[in-house]
């Protein structure tokens, strides 16, 4: 029985890992495709996808635990404040 | 369910833990230095903070002495820079930020929610050791010659030009930040997960709510300060260009990072003070707090909006005018929840059975001084006026009204209010009332003249000044003598009361709240029987009736208590 | 099993379930705090990149893509091992948990060693933005100022993670810490955050200006 449990843990982990690997290869390959200003957003979007995968599966955030999502969400919101208002100054400077 | 398991745990606890108070449960130096009891850690913090209050206060005394005369005769201009930097660094990070949350908050939070301790008792002790380590680093920086950048560490001065111990001081502040984050994590987890059965969110005393808001700000703002200071360290120690304008860097970036922490830091200082006053005012007015729900929302609004106004420190820095207008607007907006709190305290007083014991005098002083500090903040939030008074004593007066007239007055009020709970002894009421009144007048004499001279154009951070400002400086320095006496006096009579003070009962002020439902001083595990909460906070009288008039004589003998 | 629970239970908690909930909530708040620390550095990167897009593109080409990519792979794999270790510990699968934790330690050390070789190569190629810095584009010095700061701070966090995982593995191996202790999940969450930070640094530091 516990052998089956171990296999289930490994299988779920390996699947996620395979997904992460694919994303890594994709971002590496796409970095060499000239897309002008799009290169950075694409790279960051893939990074965000990888981060989300790690957060949801490895860090167990897919569990419906409001408290943990609150903690994770609050830091993202506050990072948003930091970037938004700093860039509000930077981009409107004469 | 958890109440039952708590009962079992209590039954298993050794018998001697039931009898003694937390002060006498264990003895010896190691029982203090290795304690995980939140009440003892609170006292450890209190001892450390008192020491830093003396250091920062000594610098303030020297500053006021120097400014007695227009010439720079006591210290050189260079020495003066180091003095006010010392005063700022010590008072902001080693006194005001931890002042209420880590002493009164640490002591009261588990008591007020009916818990045995904070969520992570060992982390709590660890944060004190981090604090002490940071404090020693800072003292080293000061003893090795001091720092001359001001507490703000502005680049490029701090990274490229200052010839002082910027690195040590910056690392000390980063380290004390970690201590702050540890405290914040602990308190958030405690409020979320350790409330007693029946203690719903809207039954929490307002001090708990305000500590909760403070912890939120600590956890989310402090790391950004660490980032800013680590970048300063990288640039200064390793020569890595980050902000250096000669390499195309942006010094304003530092200011954005710095004030993203340092403006919310003001709310770290003042939110717990709001909480303390919200406990004292209903007790001595024998009234329910007016508009409890709005008080809660105001705390949360302040914690949130406090992060969106930092640019008002940068109106003259070269920040874009459009950004300045947004920051100015948001700074006006944050005045609304602050005003809600002041109005609600006033409405709590309305038709109350007010008695003017010492904690109440401090609380009333707080309301007056904070209101003045807040209103002058509105003046500063307006971009055109701000350009006129930037870097003058008007600003110095404004933030001292908030941080000293506000936060420190509330700290003293809270200390008097909970002194019987902490020590089991009553403070001598006559002396305490005298000290409270002296503090109000001493503070006003010290800092009100600064509004006037600031508006007349006296710049801050200068050791010498034109003679026409001398009259205001002499007034301020004379007031500082009264203020110093008002700060020292309670240290004397509170220490005296430890030995000679009248013994306090469980609830000497006849207050509501779980902390008064246990012994004074409380046992190691806080409650002999785990409490179950069945009613809202501040039930000083039935919901649809006014306070009972016979309960307390409104104008009983006010002077001869001793 | 109940002895195991009693050994893992600490003051002031009444139940291990509640204690685990608090430990996970506490560490998530701490991770949120750490996220804001790195957000400060990322903001510095974003601001300087906005001010000097050409210089940052030119500098992005100079970092070592092979080291960077291999190290990303190493860290992603270590996160897999950490997730397996944490779940196995919680399920009481001692052998799998200890093997997974040993793999984490090995991969973490591999990352640091590779990072060391990469830094040595960067220094040989005069990519330290002091005297004798190789690139002339405006903004290149700022890029490398941030490159060194961010990779160093990340490595410091990784080393801290290694210390924690090493300590827990030791205790788990010796049997002084029951596998049911929430500390394994706490350490795992921290390790994943360090991984996530690197996932974000990778496109910024290594992939810019390659096209």
UniProtKB/TrEMBL annotation, chain A:
<keyword id="KW-0812">Transmembrane</keyword>
<protein>
    <submittedName>
        <fullName>Cytochrome C oxidase subunit IV family protein</fullName>
    </submittedName>
</protein>
<feature type="transmembrane region" description="Helical">
    <location>
        <begin position="66"/>
        <end position="88"/>
    </location>
</feature>
<dbReference type="InterPro" id="IPR011743">
    <property type="entry name" value="Caa3_sub_IV"/>
</dbReference>
<keyword id="KW-0472">Membrane</keyword>
<dbReference type="GO" id="GO:0005886">
    <property type="term" value="C:plasma membrane"/>
</dbReference>
<dbReference type="Pfam" id="PF03626">
    <property type="entry name" value="COX4_pro"/>
</dbReference>
<dbReference type="InterPro" id="IPR005171">
    <property type="entry name" value="Cyt_c_oxidase_su4_prok"/>
</dbReference>
<keyword id="KW-1133">Transmembrane helix</keyword>
<feature type="transmembrane region" description="Helical">
    <location>
        <begin position="41"/>
        <end position="59"/>
    </location>
</feature>
<keyword id="KW-1003">Cell membrane</keyword>
Automatic annotation (TrEMBL), chain B:
<dbReference type="Pfam" id="PF00115">
    <property type="entry name" value="COX1"/>
</dbReference>
<keyword id="KW-0472">Membrane</keyword>
<dbReference type="InterPro" id="IPR023615">
    <property type="entry name" value="Cyt_c_Oxase_su1_BS"/>
</dbReference>
<feature type="transmembrane region" description="Helical">
    <location>
        <begin position="472"/>
        <end position="496"/>
    </location>
</feature>
<dbReference type="GO" id="GO:0004129">
    <property type="term" value="F:cytochrome-c oxidase activity"/>
</dbReference>
<feature type="transmembrane region" description="Helical">
    <location>
        <begin position="321"/>
        <end position="340"/>
    </location>
</feature>
<dbReference type="GO" id="GO:0009060">
    <property type="term" value="P:aerobic respiration"/>
</dbReference>
<dbReference type="GO" id="GO:0020037">
    <property type="term" value="F:heme binding"/>
</dbReference>
<keyword id="KW-0349">Heme</keyword>
<feature type="transmembrane region" description="Helical">
    <location>
        <begin position="167"/>
        <end position="194"/>
    </location>
</feature>
<dbReference type="InterPro" id="IPR000883">
    <property type="entry name" value="Cyt_C_Oxase_1"/>
</dbReference>
<dbReference type="GO" id="GO:0022904">
    <property type="term" value="P:respiratory electron transport chain"/>
</dbReference>
<feature type="domain" description="Cytochrome oxidase subunit I profile">
    <location>
        <begin position="32"/>
        <end position="534"/>
    </location>
</feature>
<keyword id="KW-1133">Transmembrane helix</keyword>
<feature type="transmembrane region" description="Helical">
    <location>
        <begin position="206"/>
        <end position="233"/>
    </location>
</feature>
From TrEMBL, chain C:
<keyword id="KW-1133">Transmembrane helix</keyword>
<dbReference type="InterPro" id="IPR035973">
    <property type="entry name" value="Cyt_c_oxidase_su3-like_sf"/>
</dbReference>
<keyword id="KW-0472">Membrane</keyword>
<protein>
    <submittedName>
        <fullName>Cytochrome c oxidase subunit 3</fullName>
    </submittedName>
</protein>
<feature type="transmembrane region" description="Helical">
    <location>
        <begin position="25"/>
        <end position="45"/>
    </location>
</feature>
<dbReference type="GO" id="GO:0019646">
    <property type="term" value="P:aerobic electron transport chain"/>
</dbReference>
<dbReference type="InterPro" id="IPR024791">
    <property type="entry name" value="Cyt_c/ubiquinol_Oxase_su3"/>
</dbReference>
<dbReference type="GO" id="GO:0005886">
    <property type="term" value="C:plasma membrane"/>
</dbReference>
<feature type="domain" description="Heme-copper oxidase subunit III family profile">
    <location>
        <begin position="1"/>
        <end position="210"/>
    </location>
</feature>
<dbReference type="InterPro" id="IPR000298">
    <property type="entry name" value="Cyt_c_oxidase-like_su3"/>
</dbReference>
<feature type="transmembrane region" description="Helical">
    <location>
        <begin position="96"/>
        <end position="114"/>
    </location>
</feature>
<feature type="transmembrane region" description="Helical">
    <location>
        <begin position="146"/>
        <end position="168"/>
    </location>
</feature>
<feature type="transmembrane region" description="Helical">
    <location>
        <begin position="65"/>
        <end position="84"/>
    </location>
</feature>
<feature type="transmembrane region" description="Helical">
    <location>
        <begin position="189"/>
        <end position="208"/>
    </location>
</feature>
<keyword id="KW-0812">Transmembrane</keyword>
